[in-house]
Amino acid sequence: MGLSRLLFWGALIWVGLVLWRRWRAPSPRVPPQATPVRVVKCTECGVYVPESEARASGQGFICASH
Ligand SMILES: [Zn+2]
Fold this sequence. Notes:
Strand order of the largest sheet: 1-2
Helix content: 25-40%
Distance between the termini: 86 Å
Bound molecules: zinc ion
Largest sheet: 2 strands, antiparallel
Structural class: alpha+beta
Number of domains: 1
């Protein structure tokens, strides 16, 4: 086996490794994100509640217990 042949195989293996790595890590996986819940502060008692449970009141929000 000549040196050129050895280099050829070395290059081939190297290219194969590079391609294999690219194939294995195609793109950074985006983790499944929970829908971000906006939290608002109750202007009456200062409690933080999800926006879906709060009610708009004047300048801010009030929680369900008001
Ligand atoms: Zn409140």
